[in-house]
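We modelled the chain as a single entity of 162 amino acids. Its sequence is:
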Amino acid sequence: MDTLHGKTKRRTSHMTDVNAKFGFLTKMELLMDSNKDEDIDSAIELLTATYVDISAENLKNEVRRVRHIRSFETQIGEMVGHWNSLDLLQWLMKWNHQISFPNLLIMLRTFLTMCVSVASCERSFSKLKLIKTYLRSTMGQERLSSLCRSKEVLLRQLTSPM
């Protein structure tokens, strides 16, 4: 029970940390609201303290410049305020804005590829373990004997003086 509580607490702490750093990227209405500049600036400062290769001032300027996509809503046919981080990244890539928004693109990619939950990683290793167990249990006696002989030959070669 203590282990479960500790792991849950650690994961919750990790999720809170990720949200504090990247949360502003998940809410387009926040990104588009110039009245929220202080909130966005403090989140960017926290984010760039971790990712030192990203300039806080450049990222702030890019976030302010990306607000101009509101003017494209009629051409896009969508309400930009309802977009998520992936929609913004896809739009920036579609219209070749890699040079105009390099820091924002890096942060969007980092956020969207981040493994927030370790459950998927744990499942992968669990499946690998099941496969290895299955392979070991279905291995015939002949193959096991060959592996043992190969191991003995290799050990003799490694331990014999040259």
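As a brief sanity check on the tokenised model: Residues 31 and 37 are 8 Å apart (CA to CA). The radius of gyration is 25 Å.
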